[in-house]
Structures are given as C-alpha cells and as structure tokens.
Amino acid sequence: MSKLRSELVTGVALLSTGLLAGAFGYGVVNVAATFDVVPLDVRLTFHTALMQRNGVVMQTAMALAAISSLALAALSRGRPRQLAGVAAALVVTSFLVTRFGNVPINGRIKVWAVTSAPADHAAILDQWESYNVIRTVAALAAFVLVIAVSRMKSQPG
C-alpha cells in the first residue's frame, strides 16, 4: 500500500506542478506577449476577463501543486525529501507573488478597463509582467524538481 500511495502522490505532484508551470509558461510566452502588441483598451478588457476565469483555476492548481509536493516530501527520504520540500516552497512562492504582486495590479487593471489608465500605466504593467515571470520561473523550477524526485524514486535500490 505504501508504494502505491507514494506512486499516486508522485503522479499527482508531477501532474499538478506540470499543469501550473505549463499554464504560467503559456501565459508568459503567448498571452503576455500578445498583450504587448494590442491596443491598451483591448489588453485591459481581455486581461480583466481572463483574470475572472483564471482565479479559481489557478488557485486550485497552486493549492494542489503545493499540497502534493508537500505530501511527496513527507513520503520521501534523503535528497528526494529535500527537493520535494523545495518544490513545495517554490509553489508557495508562486502563490505569494501572485497574491501580493499580480492580484493587486489586476484590481487596478479592472478599474482602468471601465475608466482610463493612469499616466504611469506602462510602468505598472511592466511590474505585472515582472511578477508574472517570477511566478512562472518558480513554478517551472518546482516542476523540474518534482521530475527529479520522481526519477530518483524510480531508481532501484
């Protein structure tokens, strides 16, 4: 039973951290890059609509990735335990950057979409993109670490 539980937790950790890294990665490579080439009013409208949809989905993905990475650490020993713990910390980092970096700016963008953007909007949007890159790198690093743990745990001996 213990081996089955460990394999299940490893699979969930791989899936959830992979989905999180993939979603953030797609956002950086495609969505944020597209934001830079459309008119500001289009960006603000789309950004607001996207964030309404993303809220529940991304929070769920972050929670599942953090919990499964922590569970993987609890079920591991030695180096795999350390790496899974770091992966969980990186997922929590992506959550904290989102919550205290991106989300407050999203609230401002929502207001701008129905009023107008302030004169310093470009700097604020650049800050949002910086937070976006930070959380994406954290999520990707967490995924890589969970892959490494999975590989270590699958080695005989």
Task: List the main descriptive attributes of the protein structure presented here.
157 residues; mainly alpha; 89% helix
Can you give the mean pLDDT? 95
Q: What portion of residues belong to β-strands?
A: under 5%
Largest sheet: none
The H/E string reads HHHH
Structural class: mainly alpha
As a whole number of angstroms, the C-alpha radius of gyration is 18 Å
The percent range for helix content is over 70%
Shape label: elongated
What is the count of β-strands? Answer: 0
Number of helices: 4
Uncertain residue segments:
none
Q: Termini distance? A: 19 Å
Describe this structure in words.
The chain is an all-alpha fold and 157 residues long. The protein is built from four helices and no strands. The chain has helices at 2-35, 40-74, 78-114, 121-154. The longest helix has 37 residues, at 78-114. The relative contact order is 0.18. The model has no long low-confidence stretch (mean pLDDT 95).
Tell me briefly what this model is:
The protein is mainly alpha-helical. Helix content is about 90%, strand content about 0%. It has four helices and no strands.
